[in-house]
Each structure stands twice: as C-alpha cells, then as structure tokens.
Design brief:
There is one protein chain. With about 475 residues, this protein is of the alpha/beta class. Helices cover about 45% and strands about 10% of the residues. The chain has 20 helices and 8 strands. Strands 1, 2, 3, 4, 5, 6, 7 and 8 form an 8-stranded mixed beta sheet that branches. Strand 2, helix 7 and strand 3 form a beta-alpha-beta unit.
C-alpha cells in the first residue's frame, strides 16, 4: 500500500474523466433519501445547501448513532494520532430574509378570491400554518443540536483512541461567532459527554471538563476579512451575472408559469426568488419538523433540478470556482490545518504526546466550499453558466451532496509502524461526510504526509491572505445581490 501511495502521488494527474468517475462513484451511493423515512420527499436530493445530512448518508435513518466504518480507512499497523475536523453547523431555521419572502408568498395566496377554484395544492397551502417568525433568523434548531450530538457519538466510536476519556481535556474547539456555530460546538461536546457518561443528563458546556470553544472569525469566516472578495464578489452587482441570467432564462420562465398555474396567482406576481423560497420551505419543514409540507407538492423532480441548479450557480460563482479569490481567501484556514498536522508529526517524532489529538472547527457551507475548491475538488470540465443547464445534468458540483447541514471535512493523521523510510512513517486520509475522500490529484485514498504537503506546496508556502486579499485599486460596488 505504501508503494502504491507513493507511486500514485508522484504520477501525473489522473485524467479528468477518470477522476470524475471516481468522485461520483464515491458519493452516488449516498445521495438518495432512505426508503424507511416516510417524511422524505422525492425532492430531497435537490435541496442544495438546505439538504439534510441523512439524505446524503441514508444509513443514518436506521440508526443515527451507529458509526459506519468506510472500508478504505487505514487499519492494522497505522494508528491515528490526530484528527482535524472542519464541521458545518447543524440544521437551522430559515433567515429573516427568507421568512419575509415566504410571508409575501403566503399573502399572495390569501388574496385569491373565494370564488377562485385553483388547485388542491393552493387550497392546502392557504390552510398550512406559517409558523416561522423573524426571531428565528438562521438559529440552530433542536434537530441541528441532535445532528451534532449524533456526529460526535459516531466519530468517538470510529476513532476511540483519539476521542478517549483521557484526551477529553485536550480537545481544541474553534467556532464562527454565529450562534448556530457556537451552539453546534456546544452540542458536539454534549454528544461526547453522552459517549463518556451514557444515561446521565446533559450538562451545560461550562460544567464540562474541557476548554470552551474559542471564537475565531478570521479562520471560520475568512471571507468577511478579505477585502478583495468583499469588493469584487460579495458587493459586486455583476459578480453573479449567471445567477441573475438563469433567473430570467427559459428554464425558470417555464417553472414560473407552471407554479403560477398551480397556485392560481398571476405570473407577474411571482419571481425566481419567491419560487426558490417556496422550494426551500419544503426543505425546512422536512429538515426541522420531519413533515411533508404542501409546499413540496408545488414541485416535481424536474422542477427541483432547475431550482437546485439555481442554488448551485450561486454557490459556484460566489464560493467556488467562479472567481479565483473565492478559494484563495481560504488559504489561511488551509495552512492552519497543516500547522496542526505538522506539530503532531514533530511531537510524535520526538516521542512526545500529541498536545491536541482532536481539533474541531465549526463553520459554514461558505467555509467548506472555498476550501474544497482550493484543494481541487468537484471541479467540472466546463464552468456552470446560465446557459448550460442541460449539459451540466451530471456535474460534480452539487452543493447538497458536498455541504449538507452538519457537513464535515476531516483530516486524519496516522503513524505507521514498520515503515521502510521516515517519510512513510506518517500518512494522512481525508473524509467528507464520514466517507473517505479520494485525493483530488490521484485516485488514492491515502497519502504519504510529506507527498501531500508537496502537492499543495504553492498554497502552503506562497498563498498569503494579506497579498491575496489586497485590492490594487478601488472598484465601484453595489449592495449584495
């Protein structure tokens, strides 16, 4: 295996078609909702960043705390010595902006006269309670806390030596300042408490025997601290050209007419944003309450594919390969991960205990997507545009499969005994959503640590946030789209 890992890492980059097939096969088996979930909608695979974690990993519907050991995980003479995890927050409420748009849509339905016959769907929606309120504004819901506790239980069972009771006091947690991330980190700690003390009541984080999570937005919300990104993408009214063009394109126009007929409202009163909010409301009702909402009945699978593409276009152009700065703004976070791994290697080589066996970092989909793009993952041969929806039906970049709620990217550093050379002594694997992630530049599932560092040499040595995010001139900008 060592020789195979070495030869693959030093070989040329795998052909795009082969790499695409490898990545797709890694995730295709985990992309559909489980049959045992009566509330799951046929739309579930298309909710983008609003996707439930169990729709990506359907085995969790049977037993949400049972770990699934990927057969590609290293074992035998290789022992995990450090785990660095980047974790998206759990299931959340919609934002105030989304709730107000839903309220606007609900108002349209209620203005239909009593003589309007309409469809059964429209009538059901008028009776469906609008239970969302402004105060919710993206906060973590109880299901999101459960997402985190269960993830903690599974990871602790999968890597028992790293998550041992002795290491509990050496856990290092970092989080975004957003409440949903802070609360996710606290819930993860509660899950570990359950692992160590099954059956006992859950304590407050302040009563646990470990350091509390530390807020670090420069790491977990690096995009807020990158002036070039903020000016050229976030606040630039032309940066999301393809998103806006798709909203007025033929696919969305067909969908607008169809939804207007279903709801029995004038098509002129609808727009792409309202249609997308209706679609996401189906996903929120499912994710938060586990119910099949009448909002789901407004759409069929073909509609869902269009709306998924609209969401993916935004993620692609604002957080991924659309602009180089999207991914380069995450260099500091990438380097921070390897600083932890370097320190663990150094301590192990000196026969010292690893000071931080487990490092947990809680952020957002907007934290994970730029980092994965920086590393070369899920890059399609052609960019996603407003005009190639049909050509991109089999695209790799599907945000719902990559960053659902509770998404996690995990680096596992191993110390391997009986290595023939010092270089072979340390190896690393990556997992995305608890499945081994093949290396972006080869088809291998394990890398020699030094070879992996060499592959990402440019990012580790040459990517400086101060330079990447520096603006050479001031651009004229407008408010965020």
């Amino acid at each position: 295996m060592l020789a195979g890992a070495r030869s693959h890492l030093r070989a040329s980059v795998a052909p795009a078609a082969v790499l695409a097939a490898a990545l797709l096969s890694s995730f295709a088996r985990c992309s559909l909702p489980g049959r045992g979930d009566p509330a799951a909608s046929v739309l579930s695979p298309y909710f983008g960043t609003k996707t439930r974690y169990e729709d990506v990993n359907p085995w969790l519907l049977g037993d949400p705390v049972a770990p699934r050991r990927d057969p590609e995980l290293l074992a035998g003479t290789c022992t995990p010595v450090q785990l660095v995890a980047l974790i998206r927050h759990g299931t959340r409420y919609p934002t105030t902006k989304q709730i107000r748009k839903l309220r606007q849509l609900q108002g349209l339905l209620e203005t239909r006269g009593p003589g309007d016959r309409g469809s059964g769907v429209a009538a059901a929606l008028v009776e469906w309670p609008l239970w969302y309120d402004d105060w919710m504004d993206g906060q973590l819901v109880e299901k999101g806390r459960q997402d985190m506790r269960q993830l903690a239980l599974r990871l602790a069972a999968l890597f028992p030596d790293l998550f041992s009771r002795e290491n509990y006091g050496r856990l290092r947690l970092v989080t975004s300042s957003k409440h949903r991330c802070v609360d996710s980190s606290a819930s993860f700690l509660q899950g570990l408490w359950q692992h160590y003390h099954p059956g006992l009541p859950l304590p407050d984080v302040s009563d646990m025997e470990c350091d509390p999570p530390r807020i670090n937005d420069k790491l977990m919300r690096f995009f807020d601290h990158c002036e070039k990104f903020l000016t050229e993408v976030e606040r630039n009214d032309s940066a999301l050209y393809h998103v806006e063009a798709f909203k007025t394109g033929p696919e969305m126009q067909t969908l607008l007419n169809k939804v207007a007929t279903t709801l029995q409202v004038p098509v002129s009163s609808l727009n792409a944003d309202l249609i997308q909010v209706a679609f996401f409301t189906c996903s929120f009702d499912l994710a938060i309450k586990g119910v099949h909402s009448p909002w789901c009945d407004v759409f069929d699978v073909e509609d869902a594919k269009v709306l998924e593409y609209l969401n993916d276009l935004k993620q692609y152009w604002k957080r991924s390969y659309g602009y180089t700065i999207n991914s380069r703004s995450s260099c500091t976070l990438f380097q921070d991960i390897f600083l932890h791994l370097d320190k663990a290697v150094e301590q192990k080589q000196r026969s010292q205990p690893v000071s931080s066996p487990v490092i947990l970092q809680f952020g957002h989909a907007e934290t994970l997507l730029p980092l994965l793009s920086l590393m070369g993952y899920f890059k399609d041969r052609e960019p996603l545009t407003a005009y190639n929806f049909k050509e991109q039906v089999h695209r790799q970049f599907r945000s719902g499969r990559i960053v659902p709620y509770a998404a996690n990217l995990i680096f596992v550093l191993y110390h391997c005994e009986n290595a023939k050379t010092p270089q072979e002594e340390f190896q690393v694997q990556m997992l995305l959503n608890e499945k081994v992630l093949p290396l972006a530049h080869s088809q291998e599932t394990v890398a020699l640590y030094e070879d992996l560092k060499n592959h990402y040499k440019d990012i580790l040595q040459s990517c400086q946030s101060s330079k990447e995010c520096h603006l050479s001139k001031v651009n004229i900008t407008s408010d965020e789209l």
